[in-house]
UniProtKB/TrEMBL annotation:
Belongs to the Dus family. Dus1 subfamily. It comes from Acer yangbiense. GO terms for molecular function: flavin adenine dinucleotide binding; tRNA dihydrouridine synthase activity. Pfam families: Dus. Its EC number is 1.3.1.88. This is tRNA-dihydrouridine(16/17) synthase [NAD(P)(+)].
Length: 429
């Protein structure tokens, strides 16, 4: 449970260029609301990138990972998909993509508490290419942030490829979002609305598979009819998709609390495909993880909404909503997790709107007991870390504590000195 903490300064190549390492060392991200961290010395960066490269090259898998997928025959492509997955350690517990919410500090927090891999929030491929500010604000990463899926939405293969090339040195999959059901996706002609335009879907996947050095993954929703879902999934595999995440709700089933994800449909996809398949939907605690893996036969699970309330889910912690007879106080709570998250944000700056969103998600139940503190937070148009740590301290002073729970079968001990370090700093400290 200890972070290694060397920042990998992020760099971007110019549009249309190949991501040559020398190019990539030219630029670096700018944090949004504080001075940039001191960049690594260039030779250190070079060494890190080369170490990473050599570790992938030293893998003696049958297929060199730099070969774009579609250069390979059908059988070899499937083997390559599995050799990549195996090389990553077959991650099972995965942080789902969440706009404004699965940003670097949150991913690192979830990784500390058991997540094996994580997706970035969806990035808009065209804006990513065109706007440096968007790139710098919306995509940051570091050495510890692997395995990493970087997700884009797109409807133009060339634009998608340009965006993907900028990030491929920093991730393990470039993912395409075919699942977004929101109105903005309808207007922008991407996400789940491409389920009506399957030739566009195919061209996007093929373009990346033929030209990228990292594998392409896709995240989809299911169709109302199982046979449509299966032929969709097969088409993606044939187009060069190396890993498929299936959210078991249809495009119209937007409300995750109202509609249960269909694990049977996910299981059918898993049985029909030969590449790794991940299940998404209804994963709220570790019992769900185990049941989902068993029922669907999938290679891993994604969780989204439940992680926002409880980033320690994959370490076996659960919120009071899921208490059972065999659960007990896990000696950890959401305020501890918020303090950890804020410390990560101090180290790896992100836009304040993301931080604000996590404060509400993590302390939602606490604010229910003291709504005046929530109102104070809402009234602050400009946030500071001092103010946010102050909120945690005031809630504690007022005696609020809502523990996270653990079942006897999933116990993660948090050492006392570690817990002490998760107290919010006070003005005097
Ligand atoms: C705040 C939020 C933002 C999301 N953003 C994305 C996104 O950027 N890309 C995506 O593919 N899905 C996105 N989703 C959907 C989730 O990845 C996931 O598919 C969905 O919430 C179902 O999983 P769950 O039942 O564990 O919540 C988002 C969900 C939430 C709650």
């Amino acid at each position: 449970m200890i972070f290694k903490s060397k920042t990998l300064t992020l760099c971007f190549s110019t549009p249309n260029s190949r991501p040559l390492i020398s190019n990539l060392l030219m630029a670096q991200t700018r944090p949004v609301h504080s001075d940039p961290p001191p960049p690594l010395q260039q030779h250190e960066q070079q060494q890190e990138v080369e170490e990473e490269k050599s570790s992938s090259l030293s893998d003696t898998a049958a297929f060199r990972l730099e070969s774009p997928t579609l250069c390979l025959t059908g059988e070899a492509r499937i083997e390559r998909a599995w050799s990549h997955w195996n090389k990553l350690g077959r991650p099972k517990l995965i942080v789902a993509p969440m706009v404004d919410n699965s940003e670097l500090p949150f991913r690192l927090l979830c990784r500390k508490y058991g997540a094996d891999a994580a997706y970035t929030p969806m990035l808009h491929s065209r804006i990513f290419n065109e706007t440096e500010k968007y790139r710098n604000e919306e995509f940051t990463t570091c050495k510890e942030d692997r395995p990493l899926f970087v997700q884009f939405c797109a409807n133009d293969p060339d634009i998608l490829l340009d965006a993907a090339r900028r990030v491929e040195p920093y991730c393990d999959y470039v993912d395409i979002n075919f699942g977004c059901p929101q109105r903005i996706a309808r207007r922008g002609n991407y996400g789940a609305f491409l389920m009506d335009k399957l030739p566009v879907v195919k061209s996007l996947v093929e373009k990346l598979a033929m030209n990228l050095h990292v594998p392409v993954s896709c995240k989809i929703r299911v169709f109302p009819k199982l046979e449509d879902t299966l032929s969709y999934a097969k088409m993606l595999e044939d187009a060069g998709c190396s890993l498929l995440a299936v959210h078991g709700r249809t495009r119209d089933e937007k409300d995750g609390k109202k509609f249960r994800a269909d694990w049977n449909a996910i299981k059918a996809v898993k049985n029909a495909l030969r590449i790794p398949v991940l299940a998404n939907g209804n994963v709220r605690h570790m019992d769900d993880v185990e049941n989902c893996l068993e029922e669907t036969g999938c290679d891993g699970v994604l969780s989204a909404e439940s992680l926002l309330e409880n980033p320690a889910l994959f370490a076996g912690f659960r919120t009071a909503e899921w208490i059972e007879e065999s659960t007990k106080d896990g000696n950890l709570d959401q305020a501890h997790l918020l303090v950890e998250y804020l410390k990560l944000c101090e180290k790896y700056p992100v836009p304040w709107r993301m931080i604000r969103s996590h404060v509400h998600k993590l302390l939602g139940e606490w604010f229910r007991i003291h709504p005046s503190i929530r109102e104070e937070l809402n009234a602050q148009s400009i946030l500071t870390f001092e103010f946010l740590y102050g909120i945690v301290n005031r809630l504690r002073e007022q005696g609020v504590r809502i523990p996270l729970y653990q079942k006897d079968t999933h116990v993660t001990e948090i050492p006392a000195d570690e817990l002490a370090s998760l107290q919010a700093p006070t003005a005097s400290s």
